[in-house]
Design brief:
The chain has 380 residues and is an alpha+beta fold. A four-stranded mixed sheet has the order 1-4-5-8, with helices on one face. Helix 1 crosses helix 4, helix 4 packs across helix 7 and helix 9 packs antiparallel against helix 11. The relative contact order is 0.11.
Length: 380
């Protein structure tokens, strides 16, 4: 089935993205996997190509284009190429929303030019060792002291954590006020007391730096408060829908790619004198996956359009994130099985995918949390 949500301009942009990936990312990704981190040069290259801050104001070096579909195309093509090292989606889809909506004019002038050029890499620090999906359970505090907040606590599983020059930190500015005491503070590289721990050793996504962050009496200027004090939890709830849509979009593209690779393999790999795709069980497995992916693509594209129109609900985003990531997990598992022994060899893309996709049903809110959000919307 053809997709009708893109124009000729979108497809021209897609061609440019593919060229960027082929030149600036694919040749280096194997080395990044060994290093456990990408080169900052790919971020600068993305900035030069206009792939960072597509929706940021032109006066700061952004693209000035609010059309979310351009970010979708970027994410889709990265997923298809298996390029997970540079966490561009964290920068563009997640942090960009907070910064664009909440920054003061002074903050925009300070941060936006570097954000758009790739000189400033961003991260967001929500998760803590004892608080993941339950953001109200965070223990990091930021107590006001004159014209500064004194920040104390730790965060973990932070994408871009090693490379980040600017970190949006979720902290309690009023620990006695529950969710109404949560605020967002921007911590910058080099602030006294801000330390990075390990670049964490993960099952997959080896090229993406994922770190522990520590804050020991970090004095953060009041001028680095993002939005209003005490509004952090509301800001998080408002922006999580796009984050979950981004994850769902990536999952759909990755699942389609795994299927196409496996279909090609089943047409050429022979057993007992014929291609393995000719066996009824394998043909039925491929038919099931094709049907599931086609149905899911329709819902995914509907959600993309709704987000562009400002109409995507938290419940719909939760449905998409839950369904697409679970489908990705099962599709890749079945594709490994169809590859047989070769599916377990890391020189085959499907084996790498098997390692990389497992986290999808966990980060951005676990499948169980997505079901809870959906269930509550039913009045249950």
């Amino acid at each position: 089935m053809g997709r009708d949500i893109y124009t000729e301009e979108h497809e021209a942009f897609r061609d440019m993205v593919r060229s960027f990936i082929a030149k600036e990312a694919s040749p280096h990704h194997e080395q990044w996997e060994k290093d456990g981190i990408v080169s900052r040069e790919v971020w600068l290259a993305a900035g030069r190509a206009g792939l960072l801050g597509i929706d940021m104001p032109e006066e700061y070096g952004g693209g000035g284009n609010p059309d979310y579909r351009y970010y979708v195309i970027f994410n889709e093509e990265l997923a298809k190429a298996g390029i997970h090292g540079p966490a561009f989606a964290v920068h563009n889809d997640i942090n960009g929303g907070y910064l664009r909506q909440l920054c003061t004019d002074e903050q925009k002038a300070r941060w936006f030019p570097g954000y758009c050029s790739g000189e400033i890499i961003t991260a967001i620090a929500m998760t803590e060792p004892a608080a993941g999906s339950d953001l109200q359970g965070i223990k990091t505090t930021a107590i006001k002291d004159g014209d500064h907040y004194v920040l104390n606590g730790s965060k973990t599983f932070i994408s871009n954590g090693i490379l980040a020059d600017l970190v949006i930190v979720v902290a309690k500015t009023d620990p006695s006020a529950g969710s109404k005491g949560v605020s967002l503070l921007v911590v910058e590289r080099g602030m006294d007391g801000f330390e990075r721990g390990r670049n964490l050793d993960k099952v997959g996504l080896h090229a993406q730096d994922t770190a522990e962050l520590f804050f020991d009496n970090v004095r953060v200027p009041v001028s680095n408060l993002l939005g209003e004090e005490g509004m952090g939890f509301i800001y998080l709830m408002q922006n999580l829908a796009r984050e979950r849509l981004s994850i769902g979009v990536t999952a759909q593209a990755a699942a389609e790619t795994a299927f196409e690779q496996t279909l090609a393999y089943c047409k050429t790999r022979e057993a007992f004198g014929r291609p393995i795709g000719k066996f009824q069980h394998n043909r039925f497995t491929l038919a099931e996956m094709k049907t599931e992916l086609t149905v899911t693509r329709a819902f995914t594209d509907q959600c993309i359009v709704k987000e562009g129109d400002g109409e995507l609900s938290a419940e719909e985003a939760a449905m998409l994130k839950y369904w697409n990531t679970e489908l990705l997990k099962t599709v890749v598992d079945r594709c490994v099985q169809l590859h047989g022994g070769y599916g377990y060899m890391t020189e085959y893309p499907i084996a790498k995918a098997y390692q990389d996709v497992r986290i999808q049903t966990i980060f951005g809110g676990t499948t169980e949390i997505m079901k809870e959000i959906i269930g509550r919307s039913l009045g249950i």
